[in-house]
Structure formats: C-alpha cells, structure tokens
Amino acid sequence: MSSSNLKKHLARKRKIQSSQSQTRKRVKTTHTVQDLPWKALVRPKITGLSGDDGILELEEVEGVEVVYEETEAGRVVKFNVVAENEDDEDVESVSEKLDDGEPQEPTKDQEAEAEEPEIEEIVEDTPHWDCEKLLPEWHPLSLHPKINMALHEKSFSSPTPIQKAAIPVALRGKDVVGVAQTGSGKTLAYGLPILNYLFSQPRPSVSHKRPLRALVLAPTRELALQVSSHLNSLLTSIEFRKQEGASEADSRSSSSKPPVKKLPPYVSVAAIVGGMSSQKQRRILDRGVDILVATPGRLWDILGEDDELAQEVKQLKYLVLDEADRMIEAGHFAELENILRLTLRESKDEMIADDTNPGVEGQDEEDEDTKEGILEGGMQTFVFSATLSKDLQRNLKKRYKPKGNKKHYKKDQAPASTLDDLLLRLDFRDPDPEIIDLSPVGGVVSTLQEGKIECLSADKDVYLYYFLLRYPGKSLVFLSSIDGIRRLLPLMALLNVNAFPLHSQLEQRQRLKNLDRFKNTKNSVLLATDIAARGLDIPAVDHVIHFQIPRTADTYIHRNGRTARAMQKGFSMLMVSPDERRVVRALLNNVGRNESEIAEMSIELSMLDKLKARVQLAKKIENAQHKVKKTNHEKNWLRETAEVLGVDLSDMEQSDNENHPSKKKRKAQERDMAQMKDELKHMLAQPLLAKGISPKFITSGSRSIADDLLAGEVNEAMLGLKKAEAGSEMEVKKKKKQAQKTAQAKERKGKADKSKKVKEEEDKMDVDALTGEDDEE
Ligand SMILES: Nc1ncnc2c1ncn2[C@@H]1O[C@H](COP(=O)(O)OP(=O)(O)OP(=O)(O)O)[C@@H](O)[C@H]1O
Fold first, then answer.
1. Which one in 152, 277, 280, 506 has a CA-CA gap of 20 to 30 Å to 580?
2. Per-residue pLDDT, 102
3. How many C-beta atoms lie closer than 10 Å to residue 117's C-beta?
C-alpha cells in the first residue's frame, strides 16, 4: 500500500471508529483491585521518573468506574470494568454509509498494515539513517536497525570488548561463557543477541499471550531489577523514537490530531524478584513477557504454583546465568538446580541421571543420539561473570567428550566444585561452548587505582570520616555485617554525612529508595553489605571503601567493580587492621598479587586529631541515645505484653521507678544530651584548618591559601588542603617514598664508593709500603 493510500485508509478507519463508538454497548463487570486489567507503563525519561524512587513498576488501568455502595456492613467500594462491546450490525451499516464510493473494504493485509501505526513505517524506513556512517563500529555486527538506532540514541558509539567478542558468536547460535571485568557491558553482550532475535520476529499481537522466550537468572533482587531496567531502557529509546515519529506524522497530517493507536510493545522485559506482591507478579506473568529476569528463589516458588510458566520454561529459546558463581554463594544452589532441570530437554535429563551412574551398559550409544537432537534445535545458553576461574572454564570444556568417545562424564572427572556441578547441569546445546575470557590479570580493571590504610579497628571510623571529607564524591562503603551498618549509620548522620544503608534486612522498597537517593545525592555514602558487591551498576561511584575486608578474592574484585565502570576512573581503598593483614595477604595471593603492590594512602595527621574529637563526641551522643531508645523500647514492650496478658504492672512499675532514674535525673540526662549536641554542632561549624593556616589572614600564616581560594582549588571541608582525587595523594607519597629510596640508595652508593676509595687508597698504601715506593720510607 502506498503511503498516501495508507493515510486515506487510516483516516477512513478513524471516521468509522468514531462512529462505532456511538453504537458500542458498555458492559460492566465488577472486579477487585487486584484483578483489574492493569497495564504496564513505560516510564519516559522526560518525566523525570527514570530513577526507581522505590517504584518497581508503574501500571495504569483504563475504563474503570469506582462505585461506593452503602451496605448493612457499611460503605463498600466496587470497581466496575467498562468493556466496549461492538454491535456488529450497527458497525456494518455505518461503514457502508461512510464508504461513499471510496476504495473497497480493507483486505486482511491492509488491516494488518493499518494496525501498525504510520510512525512505525517512518522509523523503519528512515532513509537518512546510515548505520555504517553513524555507528561504524557496530555496523559489522549486523544488528537489527531498531537496536542500532537505540544504541546511537544512548551514545554507545562502539561495542565494548566483551560485546565485540561475544555478540557475533551468540548471533551464530553458539552457547557462550563470557568472562570480562566488572562494568564492561556484559548485560548487553548477552542481551543484544536476544533482542536481535526478538526484533526479527513478527510483532506480537494483542489477542495472543506472548510466550516466554528468554530467562535471565541473577543472584540478587537488585541485579535482576537492574538487568531488566537496562534492557528496558534500550527498549524505551526505541519506543521514544516512535513517539518522535508520531508527532512528525501528526503535523504532516491535514486532519486534526488522529488518535494514536496503542500497540503492544515489540519486546517486553520484566523482573520477578522477592519482595514484590504476588498479585503484581501474577499480572506480569498473565500479560506475558518475552524476557523474564528473576532470582532463582522467587522463580522456583512461582514455578511450584504455575504449571503454565513451567511449561514455558521448558520451551525457552535463551537461558542466561548472570553472575553464575555468585548464585552458588548466595545459597541458591538447590533452586537453581531445579530450574535448570526444567530447562533440560527430557532426554538430556536422563543423560545426567545416567552420568551419575556411568556403568549402565548400552546407554552410551543412545545418549550420543539424544545429544545430537539437542544440538539441532533447543535452547541457547549464556553464562556470564567477572570471575569464573580458569579451572572452571577448563572443566566446562571437559563436560562433553569428543564424538566417538562414549562416556560424557566419568567418575574420576567428578565435579571439582559446586559451581562445576551446577554448570554440568546446563543444557549447552553446543558440545563445545565458546569461552570468551577477557578478564584482566589479577582481576584489576585498568582504570581502577587501589590504596590502603593500615589502622587499628577502633580507629576505622575516624579514618573513614577523614577520607569522606578529604575526597568528596560518591563512596560505596562495604561492611561485612548488618550490625556494623546499624552502628555506623547514626554516627554518620550526627557528623552531617549523607549516608544511606543497603542490606538484606531492609524491605525491597526501602533498598531501592536508598539506592536511588545515593545515586541522586552529590556527595553521599552507601553503607552496604556484600549484597551490593555484584552487578550493581550505579553510575559514577568514585570510591569503593572496604571498611571491613572482603572474605574472598572474588568478592574483592566484585566490590571494586562498583567503581571504574565502563572505562571511567575509580578508586578502591582497603582499611586493614593488624588482625586483618594475614587475610588480606592470603586473598591477594589467591589472585596472584602481592600486598605490597597496594600503596598506602597519605594522611594529614593534624586533621585526623581534630576529626577524632568530633567522632568521639558523636559516639558519646549515639551511645546515650541508644541507651534511651533501648529503655523506652523495653518499657513499651513490657506494657504492651502486660496489656495483652491482662497483668497489672502497677507494683512492678513502682519498684521499677526506684531502680530507674527519677524524673529529675532523666531531665538532667536530656540536658546533657542537648549540651553534647550543641557542642558537636559548634564543632562541626568550625572550619578544619590544616597546620600553618590562618583563617583570618589568608595570605599570611606559614601556608597561604589565597591563591588556592582564587583558583577554586581549596578543599572546602579542610582549609589549607588542595582539592585532590583520592589516588593522586598516594602518588605524591609514592613519589616521595621513591625519592627517599633513591636518596637513600645514592647515599648508600656514595658511602660504598667512599669506603671503596678509602680501601683502594689503603691498599695502595700497603702496596707502596711493601714495594718501598714511599719516598719517606
Ligand atoms: N557499548 C557501550 N558503550 C558505552 N557504555 C556501555 C556500553 N555497553 C554498556 N555500557 C554501559 O556500561 C555500564 C556497565 O554495563 P554492565 O552493567 O552491563 O556491566 P557488567 O559487565 O555487567 O558489570 P558487572 O560485572 O559489575 O555486573 C552500564 O552503565 C552500561 O549502560
């Protein structure tokens, strides 16, 4: 159909539709809130809702009438869904009337074309969009034009090394095991081949539930949500282009704005994680998604109740294990194993059962045939991580023996670890999955700088506070316990540091909210346990601080991976107490590194003393506050329990009053607290001055700060110190140390030369003496 014909046809169809609306019957059905026809809403960037702000997903509902009914039990709210039901006879007569000798009724093909909005045509056929010219580095990968346009829109001008290596292999249909440094774009390395496949399929229709085509398993809720929002944000760029196209089309159309027909999304991606209401999950699954991102625990729970989904998992086209190694650590082994078992084709399942019993006669021939079956069709599998050991990669290769060798897996090749065991269960359709290992030596990303502070455990708070003031920015502080976070958080608040917690005991909503606050607050701190160590892609994290050292080398690498992402600079600092040194040494040795490679940070000791006073006072206040809170909590608990049990506490309260401080005493405590808070406030208001700085006479003192002030190079929290990046000061110290070492070496050499000269002279004198050359002698 030509463009002008299509326009005419659309205009005619619109006329018909508006007349139809007058002849439609409105059918009402009563629903509960949960089973209303909710629809997912794409969050456009321009609304400012691109951040999560605690919102997992936005949904809207149309055509719902809210009715209040007075009943004997009181007022009841009812929701009537108003469905539009066409009266076929009426519609036909109207359409006849409107024909006016114009072209015939649209054919089925024309109908289908009309379903696709004009704007789609414009986007797809844009003649000016030259991928080869605009995205020369992506062009050879031959991705779908819609994907290329979205990449351009996001300014991803070239694929990252792992994308460049993995995408062509995945597009050829091979299974891929990808290992690449943190923040190197692994999500799109597996995501783009999947999207490419989905965009090459016909657009799903509204009337059919779309089948699940890809399942991405991630170890944590945050990572699962992030993967889905990463893919969705690319898809939003595509939808967004459509809207731009729509306005172009509207302005070119002579009639007043036509109603833009809402199409189902071409590709739908959703996350199912713990902490989400089961009704919402139900709605997402009932609607149907192409790509489901899930944590194994929650998915396994759902699969237990949802046979339809279990069937869909059996028919998957793609299976992805993101951060596979972490899933084992996170204790997801059993659920993951069960899910993987579902993805196995029947016969393969048997094969694995047989592997554990390799002595069955005549089984091998059959297995080999079955394997061929799997190779032909079935599912493509991608396993990605920043840390998959070389041993594990080798074992993956060994899973299948070359053709002709009957046994797939011998007893003496028993899995070396739980992860080996798990990967053995993967339905690689490839006997030889492609292993792409781009991980850097020692796991250190080239743009990451590392440093350390050696101090007593009790002094870590002060050193942390020093670091945060000295190097403002976004700092992600890792602690190994939730209690540690609970202790540090109020301390940071008292010291006016913007700190937010992130740990497993927070509700999902709160976790997302805190992540969002951290993302959106300029100088802020995220106090986190290792749930934040893997996969989280928080833009522009300047520093990762290991307040408590990580337990494994992999965790060290993944924690560090939250900074220095996508070739940006980043800094990581280990805070090591004397009793932690041995562990640090061991974990660095594990990745073939030496503790001495990590330089020590330089500290302005005069500042540290001032900060110590602040921290000590803040701790005193916090302790006092904690005591009051605890007493109140105990009292309330006792009162509430007594009420429930119907116990009279008056006697006890009287004797308690004798033990507890009197009102007077409590008043005195409150006064003390207020005094301490005032004192801290006063302390915090005082500028921190480096040694030799005069605040009154900025050009005098032993260090003048006038020039730095004028150049805007002063650290605002610590007057007298220049603005500096965390790594730079170490370099100074390193250089100083180097200079010192060189001086010492020179000195040593000088001394050695001198003593050599002296010795030579002495020897010469001896020889002279012996030969009697000395005139005097
Ligand atoms: N081709 C590209 N060009 C520029 N930026 C990219 C490109 N691909 C991905 N990115 C960006 O790089 C960042 C890191 O990507 P991603 O989260 O996929 O890394 P990762 O390798 O999965 O990291 P981790 O191992 O920590 O999970 C993201 O913000 C993403 O938007």
1. 506
2. 33
3. 19
User: Which residue is closest in CA terms to ligand 1's atom 30?
Assistant: 185
CA distance 50 to 156: 18
Give the pLDDT confidence score for residue 215 in this predicted structure: 97
| CB contact at 8 A, 252 and 4 | no
Q: Measuring from each residue's beta carbon to the nearest atom of ligand 1, which residues come in under 6 Å?
A: 156, 159-160, 163, 182-188, 386, 535, 537, 561, 565-566
Contact 178, 162 (CB under 8 A): yes
What is the atom index within ligand 1 of the atom nearest the CA of 561?
Answer: 26
Closest residue to atom 15 of ligand 1, CA basis: 185
Q: Is 1 helix (H, G, I), strand (E, B) or coil?
A: coil
Instruction: Count the domains in the chain.
Output: 2
Could you tell me the pLDDT band of residue 565, with boundaries at 50, 70 and 90? confident
Question: CA-based angle 99:104:110, to the nearest 5?
Answer: 115
State the pLDDT at residue 743. Answer: 65
Handedness of CA 762, 763, 764, 767 (dihedral sign): positive
What is the tens place of the pLDDT at every residue in 292-315? 999 998 899 899 888 899 999 988
ipTM (interface pTM): 0.98
Domain that holds residue 387: 127-202+209-243+266-344+378-397+417-439
Tell me which residue of 124, 141, 294 sits closest to 203, measured CA to CA.
124
Residue 679: inside a domain: no
Residue 185 has pLDDT above 70, yes or no: yes
User: Which residues lie closer than 8 Å to 268 by C-beta, 6 or more apart?
Assistant: 40, 210, 287, 288, 289, 290, 291
Instruction: Tell me which long-range contacts 326-329 makes (C-beta under 8 A, separation of at least 24).
Output: 326/219, 326/220, 326/385, 326/534, 326/535, 326/558, 327/217, 327/218, 327/219, 327/296, 327/422, 328/418, 328/419, 328/422, 329/219
Question: How far, in Å, CA of 365 to CA of 82, rounded?
Answer: 61
Strand, helix or coil for residue 269: strand
pLDDT in tens, 529-551: 998 877 677 878 999 999 999 98
Higher pLDDT, 565 or 483: 483
Q: Which atom of ligand 1 is nearest to the CA of 162?
A: 21
Residue 533 maps to which CATH number? 3.40.50.300
Residues 323 and 426 occupy one common structural domain: yes
pTM, two decimal places = 0.61
Asked whether residue 181 is assigned to any structural domain, the reply reads yes
By the 10 Å C-beta count (0-12 exposed, 13-18 middle, 19+ buried), 255 is classed as exposed
Nearest CA to ligand 1 atom 8: 185
For residues 26 and 723, the model is more confident at 723
CA dihedral 259, 262, 263, 269 (to 10 degrees): 150
Looking at the structure, tell me whether residues 228 and 339 fall in a common domain: yes
Predicted pLDDT at 103: 31
The answer to whether residues 548 and 460 belong to one domain is yes
Q: For 188-205, what is the mean pLDDT?
A: 92
Does residue 423 share a domain with residue 501?
no
Q: Phi, psi (5° rounding) for residue 608?
A: -60, -40
**Centroid of ligand 1 to alpha carbon of 231 (angstroms):** 11
Strands 434-437 and 380-385: unpaired
Q: Considering only CA atoms, which of 337, 237, 258 is closest in space to residue 297?
A: 337
